[in-house]
Amino acid sequence: MIDRTGRVICDLTVSADGYSAGLDQTEERPFGDDGGDGSGDKLHAWMFDTPDENRAEVDQMTAAAAFIMGRNMFGPVRGAWDRRWNGWWGGNPPFHAPVFVLTHHAREPQPMDGGTTYYFVTDGVAAALARARAAAGGGEVSVHGGATTINQYLAAGLIDELRLHIVPFTLGAGTRLFEGVPPLRLEQVTSRSASLVTHVTYRVLS
């Protein structure tokens, strides 16, 4: 029986054709070729070029009581696993809560400044969700990406709400949301257009 204590939500920025990252992702280019300089500047310009216009959505992305992310969202594997690497998010990540990182590479928990602690989970999506729910204490759990991780949770029927930030250009290839996910019924809850992005929230019905 699936434990439904607290909502499981996800936030993801995607191109108009559904890609959350382009091809050729590297340590220097975490979002691959997105038509900008590879740092995600084009795909995520709405966060940084017009922050006041999108303040509510930016704040909402880090408001959960616990987070789950894939290993690529945390950072690249250097060799087998470099324990000196603390992720893309710097010394004071924006989460300020427990973050459960899905990986095949075991590692001790990594506390960071500001209240974020990374926990590395090697036994799958269900185990990560169970640990995140326990840490959240009935609060929201956010599956924070990337698309490959979100797809696993969608395919397993474990996402309650899908918050997409859709930018008006296409990538044509890369890491795509809904890849390998069975057909879903979605109910649109909210939609708001801004100058660089459209924010759409869906409730996942099945």
Which terms would index this structure?
9-stranded mixed sheet; 17% helix; 5 helices; Dihydrofolate Reductase, subunit A; DHFR-like_dom_sf; 206 residues; alpha/beta; two-stranded antiparallel ribbon; 5-amino-6-(5-phosphoribosylamino)uracil reductase activity
Provide a concise account of the structure shown.
The chain is of the alpha/beta class and 206 residues long. Helices cover 17% and strands 27% of the residues. The strands form 2 sheets. The protein has a 9-stranded mixed β-sheet.
Q: Structural class, please?
A: alpha/beta
Discrete helix count: 5
Please bin the fraction of helical residues: 10-25%
How many β strands by DSSP? 11
Low-confidence regions: none
Strand content: 25-35%
- Walk across the major sheet and give the strand order: 5-6-4-3-7-1-8-11-10
- Count of all domains: 1
In round numbers, the mean pLDDT is 87
CATH architecture: 3-Layer(aba) Sandwich
Q: Which outline best applies?
A: globular
Rg to the nearest angstrom? 16 Å
Span between termini: 16 Å
**Biggest beta sheet summary:** 9 strands, mixed
CATH class wording: Alpha Beta
The CATH topology: Dihydrofolate Reductase, subunit A
* N-to-C order of helices and strands: EEHHEHEEEHEHEEEE
CATH superfamily: Dihydrofolate Reductase, subunit A
Domain Bacterial bifunctional deaminase-reductase C-terminal: 8-193
Organism: Streptomyces iranensis
GO molecular function: 5-amino-6-(5-phosphoribosylamino)uracil reductase activity
InterPro entries: DHFR-like_dom_sf (IPR024072), RibDG_C (IPR002734), Riboflavin_Biosynth_HTPR (IPR050765)
